[in-house]
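At this stage, I wrote out one protein's amino acid sequence and its backbone structure tokens, and that material follows here:
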Amino acid sequence: MCDKIPCKCSCDMFQVADLDTFYDSAPGAYIVRLCVEKTCSYKHIWLKLPNGSISALPLTPNNTDRPSWDWDHDELAPTLSPSVLNWISRGGVKQESWHGFVTKGRMESC
């Protein structure tokens, strides 16, 4: 796991079955889940980034005003577009945590 901010690490991805397993997994874990809200339902992909941070991204179409990512619907080796930019807050200061691409089941740092 990368401990530098911003992280420049990359890793292969692996699918997990549920969120409990996801939270306990190493970087590279992911799960695609259906999110149901009062007015809509859409899929999210949860990513355990190379630095151990977690990002949950809405996938298109999502019928909301939120940003969303295009997904190739490959649950074994997903590709997302555009890139993933994750931020964290340390001591009240917002910092880039990880920025990279998810391509064919691999998270590649920019």
Summary: The mean pLDDT is 87.
